[in-house]
Amino acid sequence: MFSKASKTTQPTNKNSGNTTAEKKGGLSVINADLRVTGDLISESDVQVDGSVNGDIRTRTLTIGQSGEVRGEIVAEKIRICGTVIGQVRAKDVSLSDTARMIGDILHESLSIEPGAHIEGHCRRIEGVEEGGLTVIQAGQVVAANVKKENK
Predict the structure, then answer these.
(1) Residue 21: in which H helix or E strand, if any?
(2) What are phi and psi of 5, to 5 degrees?
(3) Please, which of 15, 82, 126, 140 could form a disulfide with 63 given CB 3.0 to 4.6 Å?
(4) First CA to last CA across the chain, in angstroms?
(5) pTM (2 decimals)?
């Protein structure tokens, strides 16, 4: 019944179009009826359609129209269609026309669709590294090797 002798194999298709996200663990989804309290850390992609009260660290984050995040977000790429209350730090940040952003945005690339609501500062950063980041404001370096303080 529980022996290892029985091996069932499923056919695999090498040309199935696997994406990088699928290779790293796929897409994690917080559905609209789910509320999470606590920090989320993922090496793959995350989509939030529900509510997260905590910090998020991931590679790619999508916040759907019904999604809400209260906390700091650090990612390579962020697409905001819902609500974010807290600081966002990413290489590529995109706000849709339904986005509601309350907090600062630290970015390398920022795109904002007409209709998006922003309350906070937008600052360009040179890069996020182990040593910290460099903040550029009005074309001048404001701070270098900035690290988040541990609580």
Answers:
(1) helix 20-23
(2) -65, -35
(3) 82
(4) 51
(5) 0.70
